[in-house]
Specification:
single chain, 434 Repressor (Amino-terminal Domain), globular
């Protein structure tokens, strides 16, 4: 029988931070799920790191929890001591539009729904 792969550490890390921010805001899994158009079971899977959260859902959850997107990457550092998002922002191959988007995400400056 095939052995289950270990959950990626990044998915578990982001899920744990999602759970922490949700609990800090005293929002139930049901309420967060309803706000972002998911089931509470899916929120559970995200929080346990069983399922990977798409970038668009992560942005929606940041809005719903009123936290910057960078809140889900707290504590992630590279071998150079920089945070992960800073390293992405410094990628030479990224175009100017991509870099602007990354910088906006880093600063928590992303458009909100009208």
């Amino acid at each position: 029988m095939k052995e289950l792969a270990a959950k990626p550490a990044l998915d578990r890390h982001i899920g744990a931070l999602l759970r922490g921010h949700r609990r800090a805001k005293e929002i139930s899994q049901h309420d967060l799920a309803a706000t972002v158009g998911l089931t509470f079971q899916q929120i559970q899977k995200y929080e346990c790191g069983e399922n990977r959260i798409s970038a668009s859902k992560l942005v929606e959850m940041a809005r719903a929890l009123d936290v910057p997107i960078t809140a889900f990457f707290a504590g992630l550092e590279t071998a150079y001591g920089d945070d992960l998002l800073s390293r992405f922002c410094s990628i030479r191959s990224a175009g100017s539009r991509q870099k602007r988007t990354l910088h906006r995400l880093r600063e928590g400056d992303f458009p909100t729904k009208a």
